[in-house]
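Lab notebook, entry 117. We have the chain sequence and a SMILES string for zinc ion, and the next step in the workflow is to get a structural model of the bound complex before anyone spends time on docking refinements. Request logged below.

Task: model protein plus zinc ion, output structure tokens.
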Amino acid sequence: MALSPSKSHLLLTNIALGSLAQSPNPTPVSSLQESTVLRQRLSMLEIANQALFELLQEKLSVSQDEVLNKMEIIRKRIEEEKVVCPKCRRLMSASRETCSYCGSLLHPDQPEDHWRP
Ligand SMILES: [Zn+2]
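Result returned:
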């Protein structure tokens, strides 16, 4: 599937805003539709990553090792910010209010509105 430059730009903008999966008229979507949208989004994220990496190399002479080291630092940082769901024992991001697998509160000892703006 070839995209025109403007269509491609629109997709990248959608990725940046995280809005690709949100339609203007929200209707229930099948898991097939959802996985197609997620695959498209993943593909565009891969392209965006590659573009950023190539620009880093070309314009700032950032090496692949520096990128890989930074990825490892970020991966460890994200891992440290995980909490174990009290019900299903899966690892979840500490910033989440509820478990995305079973829906349990991840911070049951905190007041419920603590995590809401
Ligand atoms: Zn859970």
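Notes for the group: The chain has a mean pLDDT of 80. Worth checking against the assay data. The helical segments are 5-17, 31-60, 64-80.
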